[in-house]
Amino acid sequence: MKQDMIVILDLGSHENTVLARAIRDLGVYSEIYPHDITAAELKALPNVKGVILNGGPMNVVDGVEIDVLPEIYEAGFPVIAAGHDKATCEVKLPQIGNDMEVVKEQVRSFVFDVCKAETNWNMKNFVDDQVELVKRQVGDKKVLLALSGGVDSSVLAALLLKAIGDQLVCVHVNHGLMRKGESENVVEVFSNQLNANLVYVDATERFLTKLEGVEDPEEKRKIIGGEFIRVFEEEARKLDGIDFLGQGTIYPDIVESGTKTAKMVKSHHNVGGLPEDLQFALVEPLRQLFKDEVRACGVELGLPYEMVYRQPFPGPGLGVRCLGAITRDRLEALREADAILREEFQNAGLDKKVWQYFTVVPDFKSVGVRNNARSYDWPVILRAVNTVDAMTATIEEIEWPVLHKITNRILAEVPNVNRVCYDLSPKPSATIEWE
Ligand code: XMP
After folding, report:
1. Is the CB of 431 under 6 A from ligand 1?
2. Which among 5, 174, 187, 257 is least buried, having the fewest CB atoms inside 10 angstroms?
3. What is the pTM (predicted TM-score) of this model?
């Protein structure tokens, strides 16, 4: 293994990820583990250089004081305490968050002076290490991966491809609700450029038929999610000799920001509803990465910029932006309008500035006039929001000329549309998506 590691043991701190990030920012890899890790488990981790016990107030979680196993102090690693006042610890650190500058300096001194860790945390070393680990885990077996084309699954596919080549079988299910060119792009990049073993399933008809006449947003989501698993399962059954499932789990999926250490690992072992007899062992090489690190990993692996920096796209895709009961004509209008919006945002440099932007087509018509004749057509709603965590969102103040250009293009190029509106609602009271 190429990377030194500082292990953070979670004794109920709110700041585990802040600390892990701070250490990674120093160029040293860091991972968070539960407080009750055994000395043997700790020693089995690669290249551990030191251990930080990261506690909350009095190390009390749900009224119970927690501590690490005494054997941890005897495991042969330098140990330091952060964020609490345990007398047993060799060195005391002030509460993280009280005086970040002092803490940073103490962490730095612990990491470099005491642990003698080297600054060898970078994406190249990460990729090399994970390639090695995946090879070791998988051996000569096969790995199945649902490749949606999203950032996490794309980066995962590229990494697994580098590690095990054609032992990786990717399945891309096109549910017919993808953005314009998106499925084609997945095929182009992974099949044509990277030579991946890719099974492309065009399930458009199947999804649209299932969704016919279904108005309720939750019902639509359920149908799309459930059908997705069924299609994937059917494909999986056709393949022989698969032992592993690649999963694009990333760090925020695993680490709870809450204090309860017992809650630290979410139920991410659930492979999303695959039936009992289709349970695979999981391969999750991205599980220690934060989102921006996943992107950096994708860049390191040579994936195209647009794929790695693509904006968030909901699993149900355009299905939740074609409001109410989905019809093919509205879905097509939505897809074309979305492509125009994306193109013009790119032309205006807004694609790098705005967090998420998309179009919505509601299920009502309005009266308009075109070529001196009355029209009765759909409106297109534009939406562009900024957010940090998607819990709240503000509206991007788009310049008028950009809005005009997008409006004019949509009205000229998209059939069955006679109005364009801009959604000014923040979250709350609205959500980012319309359904
Ligand atoms: P809302 O609409 O709840 O969306 O404000 C917050 C963020 O989550 C995305 N989103 C989804 N992502 N599957 C996903 O992977 C989904 O079902 C889903 N629904 C919403 C949404 O695009 C926004 O970024």
Report:
1. yes
2. 257
3. 0.88
